[in-house]
Design brief:
Blueprint: H1 2-19, E1 23-30, E2 39-45, E3 58-62, H2 71-74, H3 78-88, E4 95-99, H4 116-131, E5 141-146, H5 148-159, E6 166-170, H6 177-181, H7 185-191, H8 193-196, H9 208-213, H10 215-221, H11 224-227, E7 231-235, H12 243-255, E8 260-263, H13 271-289
Parallel strand pairs: 3-4, 3-5, 5-6, 6-7, 7-8
Antiparallel strand pairs: 1-2, 2-4
Helix pairs in contact: 3-13
């Protein structure tokens, strides 16, 4: 009899923990009036969303260069990470929204042909926060991302400090002016020409569009008091090629007395690094979501 009862007791305790999984809705389409293409996004809804009436905090999760709205789900295991952290009580139940940022660097292009940031701020956020039960207040809204998405998280929060309570930047694509001016033509054209200016060389690459979006410039052009209203979490691996820009951002913030958390862990520009970083980043954002 004992050998029969013990397995049943194990299942009774194990099944609830296994069943605590959120729901992922991939590649939804939003029709924009600001950009001339359909905008795709994926959503993670925490366990209990469909059986409750409560509203939830939200984290806008931004992917890296050349990825899309399912990258964080497919390679980053964002839903499994969220399930685990919520089940463990590391952070409260929250909704994740993953928009397709294409290769826009999450900002408006210099020529106005692709106004991705305007679309995101003025259209997608209001749409999503009506479509799902989201607590539509700064206190319960965070933005996070990796690489290009980390750059986007920094820029979007700094340029819109009244919208986001927390910013989580993992291996952010933050470059110094010197790195931009000395980049090879192939590198600059591949990553930046459509966003900050075509066929530019040397100091000519430091356009108004570049300065208006670079986190290293924004900490000097946005009100420090406004920036102090955002909780910043900056994390970049010791073997990451983006170490310099992230280090300079940390130094600049220290000099301006802008509070932030800065992490340098063992690792490179890789999904294994970002998966562990996301757990800690959501825990950081969750500290603001709780009262």
């Amino acid at each position: 009899m004992k050998s029969f009862i013990l397995p049943l007791l194990f299942l009774a305790f194990a099944i609830p923990s296994i069943a605590q999984k959120g729901k992922v809705i991939e590649s939804q389409t939003f029709k924009s009036h600001v950009v001339d293409y359909p905008v795709k996004y994926s959503v993670y809804l925490p366990d209990g969303y469909e059986s409750s009436q409560r509203s939830y905090p939200v984290v806008y999760l931004l992917h890296g260069f050349s990825d899309d709205e399912i990258g964080w789900i497919q390679f980053g295991e964002a839903s499994e990470i969220a399930d685990k952290g919520i089940a463990e009580g590391a952070f409260p139940s929250c909704i994740l929204v993953i928009p397709d940022g294409k290769v826009t660097w999450y900002c408006n292009s210099f020529d106005g042909k692709d106004r991705w940031e305007d679309m995101f701020i003025n259209e997608l956020i209001p749409f999503v926060e009506k479509q799902y039960r989201i607590r539509a207040k700064k206190e319960f809204r965070a933005v996070a991302g990796l690489s290009m998405g980390g750059y986007g998280a920094l820029g979007l929060s700094m340029r819109n400090p009244d919208l986001f309570s927390s910013c989580i930047a993992l291996s952010s694509g933050t470059f110094s002016d010197q790195e931009i001016t000395t980049q090879s033509d192939d590198t600059y054209h591949t990553y930046f020409k459509n966003i900050f200016g075509n066929d530019l060389k040397g100091d000519a690459r430091l356009t108004d569009a570049w300065k208006a979006n670079s986190p290293l410039h924004l900490i000097h052009t946005v009100s420090v008091e406004k920036l102090k209203g955002i909780r910043f979490y900056i994390d970049c691996g010791d073997d990451d090629f983006l170490y310099k820009g992230n280090s300079l951002l940390h130094i600049g913030m220290r000099e301006l007395n802008i509070p932030h958390e800065y992490r340098v862990r063992n690792g490179s520009h890789s999904w294994s690094y970002w998966r562990t970083g996301l757990y800690d980043g959501l825990k950081f954002a969750g500290e603001k979501f709780r009262r």
